[in-house]
Amino acid sequence: MYRMGIMTFLLTEENNPTKLDRIKCLQIALIHDLAECIVGDLTPHCGVSPEEKHRREDEAMKTISGLTGIAGDRMYELYKEYEDQSSPEAKFAKDLDRYDMILQAFEYEKRENTPKKCQEFFTATEGKFDHPFIQDLVKELYLQREIFEKHTVVNGHV
């Protein structure tokens, strides 16, 4: 959430042709996974149905929102906006979330010196990035990943 929030600062006049509300993007980035502090990071490998995951997260966000006083309504509204993908800012945050996932996967590959070990994350997000700025970041990440793989093979580590 934090890295996604920081990445919203990279939006500029030049790479934001749709004029996304940068503050709203930041708010959604910070709120979108807040329910995980109660329910945990439920993945498809956890054996929890998508419906049950959504129910648990929604309940957790209602709890969190109730604890935050007057900010709670806005927090819940932004969470629902992200879940429903009902605004351009929510869709941008989804792109950021996917990008953050593959960036983290690449960081694991580099740390463990295991090119392509986390390919499943790249495969799962392929073709799912909509915002041109994020598409450019993804292209650069793929390039860096390719360079890493070639460098590792050349040096005999794979």
From TrEMBL:
Record's catalysed reaction(s): a 2'-deoxyribonucleoside 5'-phosphate + H2O = a 2'-deoxyribonucleoside + phosphate
Pfam families registered for this protein in UniProt: HD_3
GO terms, biological process: deoxyribonucleoside monophosphate catabolic process
Organism: Bombyx mori (Silk moth)
GO cellular component: cytoplasm
Protein name: 5'-deoxynucleotidase HDDC2
Location of the HD domain: 1-129
Known EC number: 3.1.3.89
Gene name linked to the record: 101746398
EC top class named in words: hydrolase
Functional description taken from the UniProt entry: Catalyzes the dephosphorylation of the nucleoside 5'-monophosphates deoxyadenosine monophosphate (dAMP), deoxycytidine monophosphate (dCMP), deoxyguanosine monophosphate (dGMP) and deoxythymidine monophosphate (dTMP).
SUPFAM superfamilies linked to this entry: HD-domain/PDEase-like
Domain of life: Eukaryota
GO molecular function: 5'-deoxynucleotidase activity; metal ion binding
Family: Belongs to the HDDC2 family.
Cofactor or coenzyme needed: Mg(2+); Co(2+); Mn(2+)
